[in-house]
Amino acid sequence: MDMDIDGTDGKPYVLIEPRKLPVTKGSRNRVNYTNGESSNSLLNTFSEPKTGIVYDRRMRYHGNIHEDEHHPEDPKRITVIQEKIKNTGCLNKMVLIKAREVSAEEACLVHTEDHWDFVTKTAHMSDNELIKNADEYNSIYLNNETAFCARLSCGGVIELCKAVVDGTVTNGFANVRPPGHHAEINEPMGFCIFNNVAVATQCLRKHYNVEKVFILDWDIHHGNGTQKAFYNDPNVVYCSIHRYENGHFYPGDKALANYTAIGGGEAKGKTINIPWPRAGMTDSDYIFAFNKVVMPIAYEFSPDIVIVSAGFDAAEGDPIGENHVTPSGFGHMTHMLKTLANGKLILALEGGYNLDSISKSALACVKVLLGEPPSKLGPINPNQDCLETIHQVIRTQSKYWNCLAPVYYATEDRLPGQLLVDMAEMLKMYRTRNLYSKYKLIPVPLSDGKLGQRFTNLACCRADTRATSNSINVSNSYMIDTVYLYIETILGNNHGIIDVDVPPVVNQPKNENQDLKDLLIFLWDNLIEATNPKKVILIGAGRGCRSLAGLINERDYSIMEKVVCTIMIPGPNEVPSVSKRTDLSTWYQSNANVLLPANHPFWEKKIKREHGTCSKIEDLNNMPVQDMLVHLHNDMFSHINQILVNGGPANSSNEERNN
């Protein structure tokens, strides 16, 4: 049959009188304008996505018998989610996928037989035996129903994945517990018994002809068990966005959870970790990570199916995660993931311990799975810690993914005949020369040991009566150095200066803070103490604040004698504190001004003397540290000059400032 380019099958258009335009109403009240005849054939071309859900109330039987106090992995977690989905009318639009128990054969595609046997035996243990065995593992509880609930939870995820693969549904949400992503091959941990997502992934690959799987883990904790299960598998990408804090946040494996863990053998690049250095990360930070890393890699990998370890403990209000991802943020992440793998997307519940937060966040994801657009987000303004983290991730992963340009090289990657020069070293040399030519600042001689190797040319001085500590931000091929503004002001007032400038380094040493503190102690002992100035002012910015607080703790009596003013501008970084010792903390509270954005997570905590006098400044919200320095410059030096004239600190209490 010949068809005209206008799609009318060679038939003439039907002229329709104004105000008599025929319409047909499709699903969700979409209005379809037709050419005077039925549009059913057009509607049949497109099918509404079917969304499955797995839920079995019996999973609540896994409960805590170990202690009287409330446990965060509460059986009510799945109940409040299910009720929220039902009460909003979403459940009526979903396809119920019946959960069933995972078999030993399926579970042992990931776990050892010993692990399976141990979990099975818990059904017949006494309470004392359950408590004793649970205490031998890391953060789990057990009762006689644990094995059954864990089998049901794992089998439910498998059944939902199977339903998506065979076309019964397009996507789905597994409202299951206990969670799974911490469970390792041979042991339960972190509230997890079987690794639901890992077992389901292996079942799909073995029994359902699925070749490539993309696993995204947005739980606040790193999914150590899932990562280990696929660390050497080139056909499974494991990507985790989690709170890291240099390995101090659970599960606490510095090497495994860092961006430097990339996979082994032929699977290099198939493990991607986005490790947040602190709490307080927001929608902006997660969406930025999605746009810069997660989605580009996922598109290039082109998976057959996407499975999300959907923990909601990064949600606003979660007492453990302490991040600020909103339901809209989770909805947008789900919306982006739906564009992959022909829409084959499964969300399997992991953590999340605020019942209100998890129910609202899960509902937002379910609505997107059903076809609704996510609610509007505010402006995307990632913080400096996010930008630096994503930079490190891209630098590490760019060797394995074409979508992450430019490719970064390490010294060990240099080919014969290539000259590889560290950009930070180039900028350091330029800055040293410029500081001398313009201000006659000269590098402070350091020892030939660790300090000399790490900090040569990073500490410069002229005269010896004032000290300032600051850091710059190196981005692309530009050097952003607002400290010049401060140098000109200080030297213009005929004061001496020690400038300590330590730019971020790509492979940040594990003891970076200790090294910088040692440098400050060296400068204090060899320059300040040696020249014995009458008045000293300390200024710390960004990461340098923590090391400056360390100096104050180490040289407390000398500093209390000489320092008349301390100003800290941590930016988005953690607010440092000095020792709780009464004399030092009292001195610090009256002497130290800590200038913070109004949206810094610190304001949610109790402010103590050892934190100094903290000021809340609305105008600093979402500013990089270098911009904060420019914004605060005039007020800071007005304050400093007042102190120098009056001869002592002017602080008395914590205050709030709005400009």
Offer a concise description of the structure:
The protein is α/β, with parallel strands linked by helices. It has two domains: 51-398, 3-Layer(aba) Sandwich (Arginase, Chain A); 474-646, 3-Layer(aba) Sandwich (Rossmann fold).
Description:
By secondary structure, the protein is of the alpha/beta class. The protein folds into 2 domains: 51-398, Histone deacetylase domain (Arginase, Chain A); 474-646, Rossmann fold (3-Layer(aba) Sandwich), CATH 3.40.50. Helices cover 36% and strands 14% of the residues. It is built from 20 helices and 21 strands. Strands 4-3-5-10-9-6-7-8 form an 8-stranded parallel β-sheet, with helices on both faces. α8 (224-229) links the parallel β6 (213-217) and β7. α10 packs parallel to α11 (355-369). It is elongated. Mean pLDDT is 83; it is low at 1-45, 451-480, 505-509 and 655-659. This is histone deacetylase. GO terms for molecular function: histone deacetylase activity, hydrolytic mechanism. It holds the Pfam family Arb2-like. It comes from Rhizophagus irregularis (strain DAOM 181602 / DAOM 197198 / MUCL 43194) (Arbuscular mycorrhizal fungus). One of its GO terms (biological process) is epigenetic regulation of gene expression.
